[in-house]
Each structure stands twice: as structure tokens, then as C-alpha cells.
Amino acid sequence: PFSVMPFRPSLQITVTGHSTDTVVYIDVQIQPTNTAHLRYSLTSLDWPYDDQGQIQDLDDSTDDIKLIPVLTFNSSSSPALAHEYSLSVSQLDNSDPNYPDYSVWAPLQPVVETGNISAFSARLAFKSAEMDAGIDLYDGKMIWTTQAALDSCVAGSVISAETGDPVPDACADISTESSIIASYTEDWIRVTGLSVSEYKDVEVGLFGTSAPATSSDANTPDEDTTMFTLMSAGLTGSFLYYMNPDLDTMDTNFSDPGASSPYAPTWGIDPTTMHVQVDHFT
């Protein structure tokens, strides 16, 4: 829209009409009434030491709780491209079995302008066959999912300080698993941006890294440095402006087992620390 819509408890988006053999993208930006909530996802919260109940912190870690924003819609169609766009889809229990409706969860990403987060954005993708009868996205809401790092004891043995021999210990080690423990709905949201587009012969590249989250070695870039180098030196300057190299060439370069420093074809990034997947949709 060319103007900001008023705040409302839920959203509805209806798309009709499409070209043959295309992929239709729905990009939506939303904003909660309290803009301070836009920074919730940037900070981890600490759960104090706790060895009771279902939520336990046994290792005194400080990154125990994270708030993850998602945009949820009920939809008349289940997106075939859900996996490629990190969408979570489940069939609604109360829908007509002959004409089922689905719950679609789309991850929200911060929209950053001059260092400030002004909104969240989400992208949904549908194949043209799914658009034949039109797409009706209704009961759209913004939800905060609460992800917790859950610690549990692993039985084993430890070395006795008195005898030097291994002795049984009910908590010789600590196992940590991430789990969604709660969800909260933003009461009111508004649409600050909406775009519907369609493309044909789409190429999708997924880039990830196994670089360490933090690194004290100046010769070993951490995860943030590696991905920033990829985006600033590689994808922005080469791919977005000139399409050179293309995605298939980048996939080949990052898969080269004979690559050696200074890794010029991969913009100085060690290919062994990168994972690239390229898919084509016609």
C-alpha cells in the first residue's frame, strides 16, 4: 500500500489472477503498536540456575531464552515451496477434509533503516498451480514463540577426588536441547508494506556456514564475519549487480575440494566452512 494501514488484531490478504508456470511471492511488512517490541528478538534472556521442573538451567548459561517472531496465516492452500522458504505448514483440525485449510507460519525478519528496526517482514511463495483458485490468507497474526535451552543431566562417571577412581554420577554431563515452551500474540498490528509479484524460472541459493559462533583466533573468522563477507564482498557486489558469477558457479566454487588460500573465487572465504544449496524452479 501507499499508506500505512490502521492497527488491527488480524490481517487478511486475498490474491487472484496469475500467469502460467510462475512462482507468486507475497511480501508483507508489519509493525506492532509498541515499537519497542521490534528489538525483542535481538536479546537473549537468562534463566537462573534451576534444577527443578521442566525448564532447568544446570550450566549457568546466560543465553537461555529467545523470543522469535513469526507471522501466521490460515490458508486455503499448502505452499509446495514451504521448505525452501522456511515456512511451517500444518492442516487445521476443524477444516473440511474435502477442502482443507492450513496454518502457515512464516519467519519474520527485521527491516533495518539507518540502524533502527522499523518493522518486520515475511515472504510467502506459491506455485502457479496453487493460485488457480486464488489464495486467501486469513486470520493473520504476529506471534512471539519462546524458545528455551532446556538442560538435563546425563548419567555417567566422574573421577573421585579422594581415590582417583571413576565413580557413578547421576549428572556426569549436561545435555541441552532447544524447545518452544510458549507463544504470545501481539494484540494489534498494522501493515506497513505489501508487495505481490510473480517470477518464472526461479533460482534459489541457500548459504550457510560452519564457522564458529565466536573466534579468538585472528586467522579464523567467526560466523558473523564469514556471512558478512559473503554478503558485502560477494553477493552484493557480484551477484545482485552483475549476476556474475551466477548461483551455479558459486555452488561450484564453494564445492571445490582443491581450493587454496587466498580463495579468490569465494571472496577470501574458506570453502570448507561454507554449505551451499542451489535449486531451480521452472
Question: Would you summarize the structure shown here?
Answer:
By secondary structure, the protein is mainly beta. Helix content is 10%, strand content 44%. Strands 1, 3, 4, 5, 8 and 9 form a six-stranded antiparallel sheet that branches.
Q: Regions with pLDDT < 50 over 5+ consecutive residues? A: none
Shape: globular
| Series of secondary-structure elements, N-terminal to C-terminal | EEEEEEEEEEEHHE
Strand content: 35-45%
Termini separation comes to 29 Å
How many E-type strands? 12
Which oligomeric form is depicted? single chain
Give the structural class: mainly beta
Number of helices: 2
| Percent helix range | under 10%
Main β sheet profile = 6 strands, antiparallel
Based on CA atoms alone, the radius of gyration comes out at 23 Å
Mean pLDDT: 88
Explain what you see.
- This protein is mainly beta.
- 10% of the residues lie in helices and 44% in strands.
- The protein contains two helices and twelve strands; from the N terminus they run βββββββββββααβ.
- The strands form three sheets. Strands 1, 3, 4, 5, 8 and 9 form a six-stranded antiparallel beta sheet that branches.
- A hairpin with a 6-residue loop joins β8 and β9.
- The radius of gyration is 23 Å and the shape is globular.
- The two termini are 29 Å apart.
- The mean pLDDT is 88.
